[in-house]
Amino acid sequence: MSNYAYAERVDLNHEGLAPASILVSAGRQPRVPGAGLNAPLELSSTYIADGTVNYARAGNPTWTAFEELLGALEGGSALVFSSGMAAIAAALSLASEGSVIVAPTHAYSGTGLILESLQKAGRAIVRRVDISNAATVIAALEGADLLWAESPTNPMLEVADLPRLFDAAHAVGAIALCDNTFATPLVQQPLSMGADVVVHSVTKYLAGHSDVVLGATVTADTDKGRELQDALAQHRLIHGAIAGPMETWLALRGMRTMHLRVERSSANAAELADRLQGHPGIERVRYPGFGSIIAIDVRGGSAGAEIVAAQVRLWTHATSLGGVESLIERRRRHRSEASTVPDNLLRLSVGVEDIEDLWRDLAAALTHVSPSH
With 40 labelled, which of 30, 83, 359, 368 sits at a CA distance of 20 to 30 A? Predict the structure, then answer.
């Protein structure tokens, strides 16, 4: 095996470092003479007997490097999974048979599909709520076993009072989970607010280049968090929801520049949200005041939204988000999207291109639905 030990830490205390410094420094090889600067890409399915790991479904040094970096960034202990859906499924498996789960009305559609399947199978009672209304959520938590939070929500960009909701969940003995994909650890760190488990689609902002499919969980460094971490690791092991080392290595490399990408895309999004306000081709702009996602309700209904998505040239009409390129999509074209999402809503994942080029392209597309057109 390589000289990157599975549980070994680089001789650097990440506590007190800014996120930008953590992204560059964590998950590196030990600082010994002759060691490579980067963690290795290890392509092996089995290992010599009597070591820390004997088979790759249980561990890989490339995983360890990635998990060290994400854990340091979120302030907990991370596990990498084969996809965001695999991480979500693992996190929801923490709810025992017959549990009551409180979740947002608007959330990632894949999460909604899992919740729906659990309820249809009689394995859980699911209460969907407006996550931005704390009083409503707290009332729904009575008798609940698990709270699933998402803030901002996908694709409506509703924002929750996370510390208050996590406190309320713990008050009734519920596990508090949070999908932090949209905000990223650069904007908020839910574990520091009281969450027990954080979930990421690594595919999005963490990896950042639209070239891998990965997910991750991060648990709090508490007795409860360590217990949940063990359960999640066991789920990954026995369900085979394991990440490929190549994808994990690419995600680790992508994270080194995450702060630069998110800073640029967030600045672009803020400028676009400001310019879009009051545009004659738009009925409503949804923007939480941070992050790189904007949602706009376009004039002309679903047809108008589809026209705008088809007319852009620099923006790309495609699903997903969080890459360096700007993407645009009408979310209700997907049958799995919540029926309460407006039919004319376009989700904009703002990338790192030049802001004036992005604006000219989007503004030109919007002329096709403006009243004067």
Answer: 83
DSSP 8-state symbol, 332:
G
Hey, what's the torsion of the CAs at 312, 343, 181, 147, to 10 degrees? 180
Q: What is the pLDDT of residues 263-275, one digit of tens each?
A: 999 999 999 999 9
Distance separating alpha carbons of residues 319 and 203, to the nearest angstrom: 12
d(CA 72, CA 54): 26
DSSP 55: B
Q: Could you tell me the CATH superfamily of domain 259-366? A: Aspartate Aminotransferase, domain 1 (3.90.1150.10)
Cis bond upstream, residue 30 (ω within 30): no
Q: What is the C-alpha to C-alpha distance for residues 243 and 262, in angstroms, rounded to an integer?
A: 24
- Residue 75 and residue 69: Cα distance in Å, rounded? 10
pLDDT in tens, 92-109: 999 999 999 999 999 999
Residue 61 phi, psi dihedral angles, 5° rounding: -60, -25
Torsion, CA 54, CA 59, CA 62, CA 65, rounded to 10: -120
| Cα separation, 329 vs 314, whole angstroms | 14
Question: What pLDDT digit, counting tens, does each position of 313-333 carry?
Answer: 999 999 999 999 999 999 999
Whether the predicted pLDDT of 9 surpasses 70: no
* Residue 101 φ/ψ, nearest 5 degrees: -115, 125
Cis peptide before 152 (omega within 30 of 0): yes
CA separation (Å) from 89 to 20, 261, 358, 372? 30, 28, 36, 48
Q: Which fold has domain 19-255?
A: Aspartate Aminotransferase; domain 2 (3.40.640)
Q: What CA–CA distances, in Å, run from 158 to 68, 102, 287?
A: 31, 16, 9
